[in-house]
């Protein structure tokens, strides 16, 4: 499974080490969940304004949020990307600005907050949800385990 990290914002500094950590985290989750090597996930770091636009357009909520996940595999029924031999599982969009705000609010590190949001988004792409109590607990445990495995 190929994971691509895209930093499309300049509100918060994202180091190469952070990008590598997020890539490894996403790969670890995908592998532990039994995803094949033939696929791709992108993790896109944006600012509050861009995630607000996406949240408004796709969720009908006119406010910034911390993370959105767009599962493209559902839309294509698992079909391979034309000419690539791979399928695009989906996109995770994270507001780096919101992650920094939440890290400060919760008293944690910015890197840990980015990792939690990345794990959350990737788990959504894999079909996990948190709308029901039992599902919320399972998803929360998987997120925390993935982040703890990185020592965060």
Number of domains: 1
Major beta sheet, specifics?
Answer: 4 strands, mixed
CATH topology: Collagenase (Catalytic Domain)
Averaged pLDDT, please? 89
CATH superfamily: Metalloproteases ("zincins"), catalytic domain
* Share in β-strands: 15-25%
CATH class: Alpha Beta
Please render the helix and strand layout as text:
Elements: E1 2-7, H1 16-32, E2 39-46, H2 48-59, E3 67-71, H3 72-76, E4 87-95, H4 96-106, H5 110-125, H6 133-148
Parallel strand pairs: 1-2, 2-4
Antiparallel strand pairs: 3-4
Structure description:
- This protein is an alpha/beta fold and 152 residues long.
- It has a single domain (2-148), classed as 3-Layer(aba) Sandwich (Collagenase (Catalytic Domain)), CATH 3.40.390.
- Helices cover 51% and strands 18% of the residues.
- The chain has a four-stranded mixed sheet, with helices on both faces.
- The longest helix is centred in the first third of the chain and has 17 residues, at 16-32.
- The protein is globular, with a radius of gyration of 15 Å.
Give a short overview.
With 152 residues, this protein is an alpha/beta fold. It has 6 helices and 4 strands, in the order E-H-E-H-E-H-E-H-H-H.
Question: How would you describe this structure in keywords?
Answer:
alpha/beta; 4 strands; 152 residues; globular; Collagenase (Catalytic Domain); four-stranded mixed beta sheet
């Amino acid at each position: 499974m190929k994971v691509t990290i895209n930093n499309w914002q300049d509100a918060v500094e994202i180091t190469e080490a952070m990008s590598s950590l997020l890539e490894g985290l996403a790969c670890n989750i995908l592998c532990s969940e039994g995803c094949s090597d033939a696929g791709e996930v992108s993790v896109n770091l944006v600012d509050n304004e861009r995630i607000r636009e996406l949240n408004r357009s796709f969720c009908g909520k006119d406010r910034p949020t911390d993370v959105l996940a767009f599962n493209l595999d559902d839309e294509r029924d698992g079909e391979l990307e034309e000419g690539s031999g791979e399928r695009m599982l989906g996109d995770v969009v994270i507001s780096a600005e919101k992650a920094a705000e939440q890290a400060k609010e919760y008293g944690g590190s910015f890197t840990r907050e980015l990792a939690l949001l990345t794990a959350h988004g990737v788990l959504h792409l894999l079909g996990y949800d948190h709308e029901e109590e039992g599902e919320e607990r399972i998803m929360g445990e998987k997120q925390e385990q993935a982040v703890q495995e990185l020592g965060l």
